[in-house]
Amino acid sequence: REAIVQAMMEAHPYEEVAYDLYPLALEGKAYGLGLVLTLGKKLNLEQIIDLCRSCLNPSALRYWTPSKKEFKRIALCGGSGGSLVEHAARQGAEIFISGDFRYHDLKNAQYLGLGLIDVGHDATEQPGMVYLKNYLQKCLTAGGYMTEVKTYLPGQSGWSTIIG
């Protein structure tokens, strides 16, 4: 903290810098954006793709894998996980399931020997949205609010809404 304030003071064009420091008093357990898991047994690419299709119901699916035929360590991230390609590889993931991988994410994964399965942004976020819906409903009900939380799921019309 002191080094940052000192650098700011040295770089600032005025004699006296106006600034405030606020501590981040975050409560609860910190969670990351994704997870890396180790399966009890290895799965081949076709088995993993079948699981992605049956569990996530993507509208489209793209993949690239190294010559490896079976995988045991899998990284998952809801939404767009391209910024986590290097992190997933450092965690020992052999294949990474997420959405919205771009060209440079693919090239980086190829360099690192990490397989990618892109099932789309919305498909990877749906499991988290169901959890969030249930959590919000529980909190609102406990707070005495007569509110219904709804989520958009594939095949339904409309988007996520909170009404009350």
Can you lay out the helices and strands and say which pair or pack?
Elements: H1 2-11, E1 34-44, H2 45-56, E2 62-64, E3 70-80, H3 85-90, E4 95-99, H4 103-112, E5 115-118, H5 121-142, E6 148-150, E7 161-163
Parallel strand pairs: 3-4, 4-5
Antiparallel strand pairs: 1-3, 2-5, 6-7
Descriptive notes:
The protein is of the alpha/beta class. The protein is 37% helix and 24% strand. It has five helices and seven strands. It has a five-stranded mixed β-sheet with strand order 1-3-4-5-2, with helices on both faces. A two-stranded antiparallel sheet has the order 6-7. The model is unreliable at 157-164 (pLDDT under 50).
Strand fraction? 15-25%
The oligomeric state of the chains shown is single chain
**Number of separate strands:** 7
- Radius of gyration, rounded? 21 Å
Helix run count? 5
Distance between the termini: 44 Å
What is the SS-derived class? alpha/beta
Question: What's the rounded overall pLDDT mean?
Answer: 88
Poorly predicted spans: 157-164
Helix content: 25-40%
Q: Order of strands in the sheet with the most strands?
A: 1-3-4-5-2
Features of this protein?
alpha/beta; disordered C terminus; about 25% strand; about 160 residues; single chain; five-stranded mixed β-sheet; two-stranded antiparallel ribbon
Quick recap:
With 164 residues, the chain is α/β, with parallel strands linked by helices. The protein is built from five helices and seven strands. The chain has helices spanning 2-11, 45-56, 85-90, 103-112, 121-142; strands at 34-44, 62-64, 70-80, 95-99, 115-118, 148-150, 161-163.
